Each structure stands twice: as structure tokens, then as C-alpha cells.
Structure to design on (1189 residues):
């Protein structure tokens, strides 16, 4: 075998060995246990204890070390011999140290249950434990445990249920604890197999108490007295949290496996959960041999399932393994920061940075006197400001209702040369404000970003600049309330302010109104890697109550900061792997009168090792320099003050320099200079734009809008329309009532199509026609009734008595054959004449469509075609860049919608660009109207549907999926807050709810205009499904309900008559023929798909975990391409912009003669009234006044 082939084989083997299945943990995947594995067995009973000496290695638990542990029947391991169970069951936290794998009143007296335990240092067990730990903590490369002990609770019953002979007697729990130790740390691996947890609570003191899991520190001895230490619970008081131990996305990347770092030396900070939420895939991985306890003769090991279980997706080989190990001598270009050069990307660097080219890319470096990551640079010593918005949904105490707030202002100010940070958040109601006081780090991250640097260490902004994402998990003690904080930092705006958006979700303990909070100083260790920073700490605070009482509380804090780094940045590579943030002088206050919460704190970043503190005033902050000055340390206690860039003075007093006045030509020709504190801005004069260097202003080369100028060659305006499509391009199209290529349009004689009633006279006009009832009849020409009563009146066309205003076409004479109608009175689109054995398609008037007639034994696929109707919709906003000619892929990412041109089935990635910028918005669904060439999107931050201003009614609380019927000029959307499926015209008017029942979490929706159908998916976790109905709300049907988990993406391919969806739970992409209900899998092992669209051979989906647009060939069932946006973040909706509208027709192409909503259905249509009106025989009567605009 060649060396290259050997390396490929090694790569493949390692890749497969590192992958894991998304399926739940099976019983035979536990570590080996039983007598054959060398286990000892605990004495049967309901409160038995056995001592296990640890001869190979002691375990570290919290800040203590133990050379022996005690195994107990009731699902725990302790560091000391436990007291009787009455002292701790139902009374947690206990006074002794305990690892609660699954604590409850358990029993194995009947001999069926067993508790096995052993110490094990065999290579196979150490390798498995190491793999679990490294998968949960991917950044910890030095994990190398030397010993483990394994405890297995098998077939344990709840005490009091054995021997009863009922269903409770048969319910048994099986679970396992593995503790792996090395010299510097110990880890707990908890394994909960599928069907292994068959009961969720036990009876304690006459009441059912949920089982619980966690890590209990017990009593901690202080200087003068002992106090209760930390109890880190991994479950809550809800039984669902127990069930989720086997089913939920864990911290290890594997269902049923949970990993925690439980002790470290020399310094212990906190119990630390694993960091991997991503679920890995497995196939062809040889499972280790497992030894389980032998069964008793005649005993059948049962695992009856007491609760409904979500369908488990079958295991499959992933198309593209995501974990790759490359041999060092394998010549493979694994990653390049950017293959472009500074010549084309200089503008991406800060104005205070230099761009440097490297062999495989470029990088930005801040100039001397500035610091940052090169794309964001700020002057040394200059105070920094941060502005942003805060949104949240927070429960306080035991309140069943959350406090919700949105777009609250956040402002922060940092004196950079002493590390002091000030934060204020406005409009916080007094029902929440006092309880947010302990969360000083909500804005304290800016303190880390601009912390006072100790020698040899760097603050956050020096390393990663101003664009990053921070997520923090807060667990309060002793109530176990949990809060999630998410903050997106968006860089520096035109005012030199750092911009951030924050989101709070969860529960906080109640702090009474009028109470004050004091937070003790704390230290927090930050661990650094190439694109991820993590930290954790324990924080104590004191609540002084209005009645004079004092409470001491604490919470555990864990956060991750993700960012995009440049591989050439020497500063990032030189940073110490760990740094310590020291925070003191913490001040918090809630101002009830102004509904303001304020935080202040001093921040220093330095070494994790204790040593004599730095005394130089530059490192303590006690220097007396001006706020706009940098402190320069000298020998010993010597220092000097130097005004920062953009200011002048002696350093003790600094004044702004007006660069625009002192250097008038600083911006160059054709530019305007604007002075700002410490800096200035250049803007190109009208008619000029920045050149590629980002500085020089050159004359703007403006495209010509020939439609507006009148220099196009389209037909006359009364026959054709000129549509501007960007650049200097335009498209000609004939108006309704005319046929042609847009440059030559001819009138259509509608009278030859028998559009009028048989008792009416048709008069053709240019582009239209007029129907008028003959003498002796009355009506609108489409419907004519005799003016006299009698039998003739009964034969005339009439409206349906259903009150739905279904409009039925009259039946024209077509030779000797009478067309067939459906049950609603509309023509069947396919007509067959039995006597001659032929079938053909007919239009809405019952007339045969040429070239559709087939011979005996076959039926045509009848999809009628007609001229595209006149556009109805809003005009584009000025910040939309129209799509150039051709077919494109649009996708939503954070605050923008991007465009990727398509060439055949491939993506032209180098021509990708932003189509529309929507700052501070989260775009979920995207749709495109091929007639108007307009993009529509749903925005959950507004919330609203943009490009469709809904007139009348209230706003849309949480619009998600959106779809367009370009023929009927309708838009459909799902609303996950209202739990509705709705419809409106493209201008947002005449809104109507189609469905508001049997919906839980509706998200994606798509249309089939030719058949008048809509399809949507509901990712209700208890019963996900994909449904279908006619566009008028009739014939609602569940298409798919089996083997679904999180059907996020949905699309319809009209060319192949296929409905396709992407499921983030089963991790599959599948398609179905909705007519024949034939279902097939297109792709397996996808990561986390969100949205899906079809084009040609390919399905394109956005993936949250890969942060990419992925192309899959539906026929070869293989991934063919991937597009990674330059700015990596979650991608949401995706849609196509076809060069031409797909040919389709439905009965509402001209609104079907309806006064308001015309809603298509299979083979016909229905006239409906909007929700703000009621249906009367005379038409739609509005319930309130409607604006005429």
C-alpha cells in the first residue's frame, strides 16, 4: 500500500471511530458490568452501603480528595459513610458529599435488582472513558485518566412496589456512573440507557418525590462556622427533566451520556458540564464487548415502556464525516482564512489598521497606538461606549407568568485606563428589576473586553475585537433556577460605539422590592482556543431585605464566547491559554422611580497564579491620568501619562483635536470631513463613492434605468410593461389581455373563449372584454337570470347557498359532449368521453386546451396555462439591491439577506453578495414573487412580514414560514405564537386565518399554485406532522406523521411533483409524492437543517450547525456542494429567484370574479371574506372602518 493510501485509510478509520450515533443509548452500550466483568455486588435491601477502596488513584470531588468511596442502594456514591436514608431522602442538599446518579428510595430486596461496583484501570475501559470526556470537552487535549471506578444500578425497583403484581411491580430502572481520575482532575460520566428509566419518582414520607441527580458538596467548614456548600443539580423538580436524561441533547454529543468535571487541583472553581451539544453519528463502529449480569432461570428481562417514546431514527452512514484527523505529513490544505489579497480587501480592515498579505490569505493588524483584532481597532487609553437592545422573557421566583420586555436600551461606558465599567438598562419594570440586580455580568462582559491589562496579558478586545457571540448559563442556588443570556456583539458603528443585542430567557430567584444586593468580589478563569473562549465561576451575593434581614445566596456562572479569528494573527497565537479576570468594587442598584438597573465594577485581566500584585499605578489604575490618556509604566513606581490618539495635552488633561479644521485635505478630493471626539470621518460627496482602497472617492458609475428614462424597446405602455431588474437591464412583459414577447403584444379576444354567460353578449376591447346580459335577462354578464319567474329561473346560474360565495362558471356548449363538473359545480380539469375513449384538459370555461387530447388507456396531466396576471404588491424599499438577471439562491442570515447566483446546478460562490441589510432583525422565512421580482420575509423581532404591510388588524406576534402563490397573488404564512396558518393578498390586505386548531409549533409552509394546494409542517415535539389542504382551507389532511421529530424545512418541486422536507431531529432530508404517498430518503446524517428549497436536480438547505448552505442531488442522494458565508452565524430561510416564473394556472389568476379574496382549490376556487368582515348574501360587510389607502 502506498503511503498516501495508508494515510487515507488511517484518516477514514479515525474519522469513523470518532463518530457516534444520534440514537439513544442502548443497554448493551453501557460499560461492562456483572460478575464476569469483575464486579462486586452490594447486599440486597433498600438502604445497603459498601465501601470501595481506591487503590490506583484517588478521586477529586469539589476541592477534596478521597481514597475510598461508599456505594449505596439509593442511587448515589458518597465520600463518607452515609447516615440512614431518612436523613437525606427528600431533604437534599445533604450534609455529606454525594454524587447522585439517580437518587430516590430504591430497592432490590426481591433479588431481581443488582448494584455492581469495581475499580478498573484496564486499557479498554480507560480508552472508552477518555473518548467520552474528550468528546464532551473537545478543547481539553491533556485528558489521560489513569483509573476509574464503575457503579451500575440494574433493574432497581421503587421501594414499596415489589411483589404487588401490578404494572408498578414491573417497572425497573437501570443506570450507570463512571468516575475517571487523573492527577489533576476527576470526571463523572453518567449513562442512562433508552428504556432504562421506567419510573420517574418514588414515595418518600407518603408523597411521591421525583428522582434527582446532581453533585452535593455537603457542609463546608469556614473560619468560624460550617455552612451548606453547593448542590449542583442536573435535574429539576419536574419529572420531565428525569425523562430527558435519556432523550435530550446532552452535554457530551450523545443521547443518554452526560459528562461533568467534578474536581480539579490545585484550584477548583466549579462543577463544569461538558461543552458539546452537537450530536455525532455512527456507523460500522465496532461496539466494545459488554458483560452483563446473568439472568435467573425462567426470568425474562423486560423493559415495558410506560411513556410514549419519540421514534428513533435508524442509524446510517453519514455522507460527510465532520471530524477529521489529518496526519502531519499529509499534504492537504485543510483551512485557509481567505484566499483573497489585501488589494481587494483593504476596506475590510479598520481605518487604524494595516493589511498584510500572506501565502494563503491576508490579515488586518492594528497600528501602534491602537489595539484590537485588525478589523476593529480603538486607540489605547480611549474610553469606550457600548449601546444596544435587551429582549427577554424571565420568570421571577415561583411566578407562573413571565415578565416579557423588548427593545430595552442598554448603555455602557468604560474608562479603559483603569478598567472601570458602568452599565445601565432602561425600562425594566419593578416586578423584575430588583431580581436582576445579582446579574452584574449581564453588562460586565464589556468589563472583560476592556479590562485593565497586567503585564503579559490581554483583554478581550485586544484579542478578538468587537464581533463575537456570548452565551452564559446561570444556575442559582439553592433553588436551582436557571437563566440563559445570549449576546451578539456586532462591532463598532459609525459613532465608534460597540453595538450589542442581548436576550434573557429563564427564571431568576425573587428579590423583594426595596431590597438591595451586594456582590462579593470574584475571580473568573478564561480558557482560550482559536475560535472559542470559555469561563466559569461561583459568585456569592448578599440580599439586604427591607425588614432588616440579610440573606446570603450564590449562583454558578458558565459562559462561552465564539468568534472568527485570523490564522495569521500572532497576538492570538501568543495569548496564554488561561487568564484570570479579577472583578471588585462591584456596585448594583435598581432605580424604581426611573425603572433603571445600574451596574459598576472594576476589572483586571492577568495570571491565574497567585503572586505579589503589581504596584505600578498603570496596573492598579491609580495613576491620575486623563480619561482620554494612556498610562505608560516606567521603572518601579514610575509612570507617565500620554494623551490618546486624536487628543492633545500633557496627559493629565487632554483635549480633542479637530482634524478637519487643522488638516482640511485630510479626506482628499471629493470628500467631506466630519470631526468626532478623538477621530474624524470621511464621506464621499454626492455623486462619488469609495474606491476599493476604502479611502479614495471616485465618480460613481451609475446604472441606467431604461424603464424610467423611456429608452427601452418594450411595446406601448397600454400593451406592455417595462420592469427594471438592476444594473442597466430590464424585462418586457405583455399586460393581461395581451399575448407576445413584451416587445410586440397582441390583444387576446376573450369573447372567443366564451367568458360570458350564455345569455349574455360579449364585447371585446383592447386588453379586456365586457359582458352584458341580453334583453329579458339581468345580472353582471357572468351570471344572467330571466327577469320573469318560472322554470327558466331555476335553470339559471346561481350562487351556492353555503354562504361561501363559491363562484361557478356556466357550462358552454361544446358539441355533443357535456363537460363533467365536480361536487362544487366547477369543471373537472380532465374531461373524458367514454364512447370514443379519449381524454383532454379544459380551462376554467370548460373549453378544451389544444394538444392535450390523449388516446384510449391514458389520461393527460392537466395543468392549465395563461398569461401572468397584473402584479399586486408594494414598491421596493430603496435599500433593496434588485437581483440581476438569472437564477439565484437567497438565504437569510442574522440582519441581512444574501444572494448566491446559480449556474446550472452549481453555486457561483465568488459572486455571492448581500442583497438586503436589515440591522437588528432576525429574518426567519424568505419567499420570492417572480412576477414583481420582490423578496418577502418574516421578521420575529418586529414582529412583522416585511414587504407586506398588513392594513388593519393587529401585528403578527411570531411569523415564521412564508410562501407565495404568484398566480393568485396571495401569500401564506405560519404563526408559531398564535398557532395559525393565515393568508392575505400580497399587499397585506384582506388577511384571513385558515386554521387555528390542532397546531402547536407550525413553521415551514410551501405552495403548489397549479393545484391550489398548501403544505405546512408542525414540529410539535409530542406529535410532529406535515399537513396539506386546499388554499381555501378545505380538505385538510395529515400527509406524514411517522418518523418525524423536527421538520424544519419544506419545499414543493412542481416539475417532479415532489414534496420534500428536512428534519433536524431525524437528521434526514426526505421527499414524497403527495398524490401517491410514496416516500423516500434523499440524505441522512445531516447536521441541523433549518430551511429547504428545490431547484433542478438539487435540494438546497440551510444548516445551523455547519452555518452553511448545502446542496444535495436528489437523484444520486449525495451532497454536491456547500457555501460558507464570509461571516459565520446561523442561517435561516432560503428561497429561489427564478429567471422566469414557472408556468402554472389556477382559477384565481384574475381574482375569479370575487369581490375580495379568491382562494384556489383543486379544480376550482372559493370566494372568501377577510377576517375583519362577515359574509352576507350581498357580499362582504366589514365590522369596522377600513382605510382607503
Amino acid at each position: 500500500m502506498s503511503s498516501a493510501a495508508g494515510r487515507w485509510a488511517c484518516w477514514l478509520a479515525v474519522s469513523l471511530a470518532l463518530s457516534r450515533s444520534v440514537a439513544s443509548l442502548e443497554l448493551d452500550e453501557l460499560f461492562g458490568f456483572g460478575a464476569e466483568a469483575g464486579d462486586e455486588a452490594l447486599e440486597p435491601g433498600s438502604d445497603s452501603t459498601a465501601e470501595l477502596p481506591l487503590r490506583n488513584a484517588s478521586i477529586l470531588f469539589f476541592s477534596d480528595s478521597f481514597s475510598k468511596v461508599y456505594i449505596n442502594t439509593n442511587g448515589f456514591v458518597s465520600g463518607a459513610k452515609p447516615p440512614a436514608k431518612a436523613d437525606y431522602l427528600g431533604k437534599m442538599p445533604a450534609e455529606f458529599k454525594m454524587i447522585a446518579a439517580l437518587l430516590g428510595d430504591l430497592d432490590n430486596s426481591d433479588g431481581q435488582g443488582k448494584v455492581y461496583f469495581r475499580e478498573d484501570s484496564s486499557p479498554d475501559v480507560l480508552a472508552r472513558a477518555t473518548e467520552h470526556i474528550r468528546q464532551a470537552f473537545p478543547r481539553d487535549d491533556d485528558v489521560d485518566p489513569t483509573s476509574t471506578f464503575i457503579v451500575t444500578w440494574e433493574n432497581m425497583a421503587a421501594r414499596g412496589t415489589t411483589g404487588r403484581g401490578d404494572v408498578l411491580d414491573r417497572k425497573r430502572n437501570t443506570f450507570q456512573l463512571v468516575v475517571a481520575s487523573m492527577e489533576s482532575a476527576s470526571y463523572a460520566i453518567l449513562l442512562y440507557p433508552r428504556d432504562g428509566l421506567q419510573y420517574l419518582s418514588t414515595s418518600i414520607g407518603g408523597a411521591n418525590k421525583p428522582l434527582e441527580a446532581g453533585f452535593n458538596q455537603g457542609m463546608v467548614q469556614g473560619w468560624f462556622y460550617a455552612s451548606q456548600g453547593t448542590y449542583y443539580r442536573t435535574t429539576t423538580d419536574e419529572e420531565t427533566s428525569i425523562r430527558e436524561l435519556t432523550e435530550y441533547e446532552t452535554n457530551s454529543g450523545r443521547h443518554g451520556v452526560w459528562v461533568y468535571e467534578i474536581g480539579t487541583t490545585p484550584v477548583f472553581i466549579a462543577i463544569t458540564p461538558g461543552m458539546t451539544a452537537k450530536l455525532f453519528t455512527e456507523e460500522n463502529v465496532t461496539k466494545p464487548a459488554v458483560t452483563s449480569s446473568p439472568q435467573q432461570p425462567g426470568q425474562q428481562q423486560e423493559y415495558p415502556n410506560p411513556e410514549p417514546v419519540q421514534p428513533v431514527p435508524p442509524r446510517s452512514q453519514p455522507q460527510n464525516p465532520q471530524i477529521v484527523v489529518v496526519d502531519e505529513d499529509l499534504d492537504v490544505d485543510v483551512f485557509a482564512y481567505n484566499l483573497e489579497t489585501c488589494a481587494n480587501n483593504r476596506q475590510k480592515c479598520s481605518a487604524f489598521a494595516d493589511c498584510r498579505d500572506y501565502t494563503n490569505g491576508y490579515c488586518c493588524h492594528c497600528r501602534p497606538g491602537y489595539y484590537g483584532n485588525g478589523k476593529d481597532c480603538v486607540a489605547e487609553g480611549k474610553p469606550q461606549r457600548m449601546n444596544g437592545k435587551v429582549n427577554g422573557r424571565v420568570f421571577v421566583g415561583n411566578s407562573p407568568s413571565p415578565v416579557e420586555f423588548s427593545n430595552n436600551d442598554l448603555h455602557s461606558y468604560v474608562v479603559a485606563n483603569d478598567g472601570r465599567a458602568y452599565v445601565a438598562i432602561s425600562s425594566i419594570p419593578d416586578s423584575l428589576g430588583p431580581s436582576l440586580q445579582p446579574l452584574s455580568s449581564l453588562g460586565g462582559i464589556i468589563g472583560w473586553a476592556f479590562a485593565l491589562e497586567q503585564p503579559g496579558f490581554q483583554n478581550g478586545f485586544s484579542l478578538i475585537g468587537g464581533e463575537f457571540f456570548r452565551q452564559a448559563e446561570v444556575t442559582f442556588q439553592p433553588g436551582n433556577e436557571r437563566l440563559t443570556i445570549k449576546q451578539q456583539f456586532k462591532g463598532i458603528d459609525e459613532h465608534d460605539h460597540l453595538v450589542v443585542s442581548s436576550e434573557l430567557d429563564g427564571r431568576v430567584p425573587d428579590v423583594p422590592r426595596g431590597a438591595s444586593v451586594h456582590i462579593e468580589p470574584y475571580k473568573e478563569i478564561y480558557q482560550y482556543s482559536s475560535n472559542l473562549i470559555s469561563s466559569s465561576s461561583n459568585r456569592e451575593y448578599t440580599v439586604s431585605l427591607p425588614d432588616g434581614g440579610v440573606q446570603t445566596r450564590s449562583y454558578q456562572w458558565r459562559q462561552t464566547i465564539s468568534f472568527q479569528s485570523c490564522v495569521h494573527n500572532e497576538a492570538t497565537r501568543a495569548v496564554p491559554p488561561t487568564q484570570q479576570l479579577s472583578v471588585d468594587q462591584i456596585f448594583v442598584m435598581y432605580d424604581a422611580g426611573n425603572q433603571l438597573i445600574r451596574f459598576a465594577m472594576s476589572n483586571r485581566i492577568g495570571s491565574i497564579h497567585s503572586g505579589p500584585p503589581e504596584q505600578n499605578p498603570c496596573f492598579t489604575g491609580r495613576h491620575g491620568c486623563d480619561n482620554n490618556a494612556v498610562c505608560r509604566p516606567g521603572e518601579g513606581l514610575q509612570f507617565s501619562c500620554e494623551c490618546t490618539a486624536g487628543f492633545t495635552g500633557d496627559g493629565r488633561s487632554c483635549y480633542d483635536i479637530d482634524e478637519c479644521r487643522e488638516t482640511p485635505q485630510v479626506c482628499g478630493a471629493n470628500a467631506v470631513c466630519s470631526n468626532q471626539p478623538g477621530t474624524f470621518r470621511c464621506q464621499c460627496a454626492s455623486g462619488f463613492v469609495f474606491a476599493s482602497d476604502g479611502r479614495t472617492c471616485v465618480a460613481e458609475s451609475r446604472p441606467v434605468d431604461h424603464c424610467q428614462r423611456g429608452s427601452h424597446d418594450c411595446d406601448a405602455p397600454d400593451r406592455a410593461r417595462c420592469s427594471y431588474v438592476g444594473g442597466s437591464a430590464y424585462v418586457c412583459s405583455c399586460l393581461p389581455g395581451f399575448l407576445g414577447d413584451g416587445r410586440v403584444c397582441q390583444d387576446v379576444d376573450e369573447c372567443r373563449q366564451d367568458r360570458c354567460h350564455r345569455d349574455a353578449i360579449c364585447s371585446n376591447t383592447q386588453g379586456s372584454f365586457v359582458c352584458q346580459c341580453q334583453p329579458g335577462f339581468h345580472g353582471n354578464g357572468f351570471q344572467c337570470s330571466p327577469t320573469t319567474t318560472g322554470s327558466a329561473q331555476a335553470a339559471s346560474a346561481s350562487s351556492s347557498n353555503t354562504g361561501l360565495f363559491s363562484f361557478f362558471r356556466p357550462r358552454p356548449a361544446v358539441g355533443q359532449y357535456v363537460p363533467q363538473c365536480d361536487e362544487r359545480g366547477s369543471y373537472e380539469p380532465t374531461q373524458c368521453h367514454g364512447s370514443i375513449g379519449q381524454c383532454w384538459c379544459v380551462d376554467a370555461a370548460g373549453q378544451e386546451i389544444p394538444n392535450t387530447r390523449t388516446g384510449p388507456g391514458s389520461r393527460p396531466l392537466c395543468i392549465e396555462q395563461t398569461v401572468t396576471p397584473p402584479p399586486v404588491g408594494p414598491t421596493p424599499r430603496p435599500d433593496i439591491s434588485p437581483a440581476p438577471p438569472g437564477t439565484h439562491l437567497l438565504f437569510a442570515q442574522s440582519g441581512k439577506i444574501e444572494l448566491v447566483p446559480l449556474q446550472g446546478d452549481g453555486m457561483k460562490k465568488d459572486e455571492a453578495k448581500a442583497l438586503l441589510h436589515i440591522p437588528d432583525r432576525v429574518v426567519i422565512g424568505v419567499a420570492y414573487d417572480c412576477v414583481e421580482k420582490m423578496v418577502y420575509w418574516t421578521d420575529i423581532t418586529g414582529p412583522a412580514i416585511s414587504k407586506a404591510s398588513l392594513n388593519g388588524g393587529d401585528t403578527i406576534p411570531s411569523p415564521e414560514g412564508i410562501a407565495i402563490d404568484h398566480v393568485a397573488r396571495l401569500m401564506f404564512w405560519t404563526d408559531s405564537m398564535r398557532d395559525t396558518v393565515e393568508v392575505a393578498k400580497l399587499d397585506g390586505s384582506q388577511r384571513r386565518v385558515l386554521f387555528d386548531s390542532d397546531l402547536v409549533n407550525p413553521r415551514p409552509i410551501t405552495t403548489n399554485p397549479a393545484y391550489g394546494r398548501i403544505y405546512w409542517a408542525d414540529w410539535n415535539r409530542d406529535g410532529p406532522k406535515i399537513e396539506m389542504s386546499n388554499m381555501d382551507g378545505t380538505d385538510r389532511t395529515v400527509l406524514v406523521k411517522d418518523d418525524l421529530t423536527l421538520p424544519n424545512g419544506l419545499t414543493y418541486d412542481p416539475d417532479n411533483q415532489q414534496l420534500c422536507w428536512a428534519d433536524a431531529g431525524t437528521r434526514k432530508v426526505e421527499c414524497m409524492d403527495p398524490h401517491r404517498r410514496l416516500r423516500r430518503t434523499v440524505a441522512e446524517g445531516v447536521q441541523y437543517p433549518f430551511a429547504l428549497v428545490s431547484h433542478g436536480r438539487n435540494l438546497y438547505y440551510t444548516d445551523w450547525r455547519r452555518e452553511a448552505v448545502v446542496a444535495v442531488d436528489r437523484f444520486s442522494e449525495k451532497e454536491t456542494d456547500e457555501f460558507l458565508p464570509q461571516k459565520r452565524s446561523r442561517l435561516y430561510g432560503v428561497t429561489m429567484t427564478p429567471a422566469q416564473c414557472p408556468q402554472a394556472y389556477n382559477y384565481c389568476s384574475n381574482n375569479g370574479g370575487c369581490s375580495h379574496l379568491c382562494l384556489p382549490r383543486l379544480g376550482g376556487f372559493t370566494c372568501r371574506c377577510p377576517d375583519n368582515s362577515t359574509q352576507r348574501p350581498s357580499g362582504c360587510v366589514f365590522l369596522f372602518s377600513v382605510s382607503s389607502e
